[in-house]
Design brief:
Layout (H helix, E strand, L loop, with lengths): L2 E2 L13 E2 L2 H6 L6 E9 L5 H7 L1 E4 L5 E10 L24 H5 L31 E4 L2 E2 L3 H27 L3 H9 L7 E4 H7 L5 H19 L6 H18 L1
Antiparallel strand pairs: 1-6, 2-5, 3-5, 3-8, 4-5, 6-7
Helix pairs in contact: 7-8
Organism: Iodobacter violaceini
Protein name: YkgJ family cysteine cluster protein
InterPro entries: Puta_zinc/iron-chelating_dom
Length: 251
């Protein structure tokens, strides 16, 4: 069955967390408050094989495993617009926007055959899925696929570095496994969040000082923006802690 889709530039999908490639995260380090988002999946999930390839797997005491997707992300509350969304409701960095935005609504962290599920707009989104829109998916295959293939290739290329980071965190923060197990038990996939500074340290990034200097004003901006909001207390706490870490790395 053919699936139609056309972006209407309504801007409704430009809110909340934005998954990024490592390259895109560093390119936009002066724009997005960055974090590492861990999303665990239990064995048997249809996305388990792909997540295992792009992320890492963790052996549990009961002879089971978790596959964990670990993604550098723009870490902002779901009620906040993307920092790149202009007042005209259009992307202010359209010519240089992250690959994640170019590939939307497709999602290369998921097997191609399951992409049709992503073509149903969320409530309030104004995507055009009428027959007047282009056919973008047919017989379990993406039709216009250049952006999808490019993003998938980058994700595969960066997977070894992601696993280096995972090994580091599992060694020095072993209690994270308990948090991941708890997150995996939720009906809707839960998340565990770690700092970008831990990624820079674990991977011995030679540009860590520069990236930290770019991140500091962004983190401090979001510290102010989330201050005093009880529903955003977790975000606020993280921004404060990460600003301190980036201050240290920037010296």
């Amino acid at each position: 069955m053919a699936k139609n889709f056309l972006c209407t530039a309504c801007g409704k999908c430009c809110y909340g967390q934005l998954p990024l490639t490592i390259a895109d995260a560093f390119l936009h380090a002066d724009r997005f408050p960055l974090a590492m988002i861990w999303t665990p999946l239990r064995e048997g999930s249809k996305d388990y094989p792909m997540v295992s390839r792009l992320g890492t797997t963790i052996k549990l005491a009961n002879r089971k495993e978790l596959a964990v997707l670990i993604v550098p992300s723009s870490y902002i509350p779901s009620s906040f617009a993307c920092p790149a969304l202009g007042q005209d409701n259009l992307c202010s960095i359209h010519a240089n926007k992250p690959s994640r935005c170019r590939t939307m609504p497709f999602y290369p962290y998921r097997e191609e055959q399951y992409q049709a599920e992503l073509l149903t707009p969320r409530p309030g989104w104004e995507c055009d899925t009428s027959e007047a829109a282009p056919v973008v998916f047919y017989e379990k295959k993406i039709i216009m696929r250049e952006d999808f293939d490019q993003e998938r290739q980058v994700l595969l290329q960066q997977a070894p570095l992601i696993r280096v980071y995972a090994d580091y965190i599992l060694k020095y923060m072993p209690l994270i496994v308990d948090s991941l197990v708890q997150a995996s038990a939720k009906a809707k996939a839960g998340q565990v969040v770690t700092s970008l500074s831990s990624f820079l340290t674990a991977t011995r990034n030679t540009e860590a000082k520069q990236i930290a200097r770019q991140q500091l004003p962004i983190l401090n901006y979001f510290v102010i923006k989330t201050a005093g909001q009880k529903d955003l207390a977790e975000y606020h706490k993280n921004y404060v802690a990460w600003a301190k870490e980036m201050t240290y790395l920037s010296k």
